[in-house]
């Protein structure tokens, strides 16, 4: 059985719920996105009133952007690569440092169709969450499907995973 790929309606519903939790906790969200290219921020800002709980989003595709906008260390990228637990954690921490938000989510992965390897096949995605003053948590996902399917699943998992940072 294949995984259910969230459609636009499902992503909207997930974002609505995330927004309600953020608003209830008086939190502001920042996103740091690589493989989703700003899709998390787009889904969030499709919701009227999201300015109450969404601070900003950063789409950081290149190594240079990850370093300049989020403070990811060059050594981290050289040793572990962009798609790694270490990079995801530095991205999520940097997003909080470079924003006024209280909660952050960062995603980095290989959406395909190319770019994968034996160690990091297409569909490999690291997602990290952090609350200001707290510790970052990063989880590894292996999503199936084409580029859009991997990205849709990443957006959903990133927003659903906010629960851990808000607890």
UniProtKB/TrEMBL annotation:
Lineage summary: Bacteria, Pseudomonadati, Pseudomonadota, Gammaproteobacteria, Lysobacterales
Database matches in Pfam families: CinA (PF02464)
Highest taxon of the lineage: Bacteria
Name this polypeptide is given: CinA family protein
Listed SUPFAM superfamilies: CinA-like
Residue span, CinA C-terminal domain: 14-162
